[in-house]
Amino acid sequence: MKKILAAISLSIFCLNLIQAGCGSCNVTNKKVIIPDGEFVTKINNNGSLEGLVLASCGKCNFGMKSRRCNLAITINEKAYSVKGSGIEDHGDSHAEDGFCNAIRIAKVNGKIIENTFHSNFFKIQKI
After folding, report:
1. Contact 124, 89 (CB under 8 A)
2. Domain range holding 78?
3. Partners of 94 in the β-ladder
4. Alpha-carbon Rg of the chain, whole angstroms?
5. Total domains, the chain
6. pTM for the whole thing?
7. Digit-coded pLDDT (tens) for 8-43
8. Could you give the 3-state DSSP secondary structure of residue 7?
9. Which of 14, 45, 83, 90 has its CA 20 to 30 A from that of 113?
10. CA dihedral sign, ordered 60, 116, 107, 75
């Protein structure tokens, strides 16, 4: 009986470690403040989009249900995961101005397919 309880306890502990993520992020799920500018406000009928968007870590700043940090963009307060550009491709994501700690403006070109943005071009704008 003690072995069974020990096995169950160990299993629960291991599952919590797997789902914990990197541990460096302070997830807040607070509402994003949208700055002024000519931002993309709608997706074309064919899913293509080009222009300025807000970019950040989907888990840390956009409230996406993800087990780990991932690059995401928002359009009209809806977040989309990004494929074709990674969170670490634009510097250390856990730096003071990194995606896990800041929401940045990015110029993008690509297509939304099944709630994922497939990027052909992704460049963070200098402030």
Report:
1. no
2. 24-124
3. none
4. 18
5. 1
6. 0.71
7. 766 666 555 555 555 555 555 555 555 556 777 788
8. helix
9. 90
10. negative
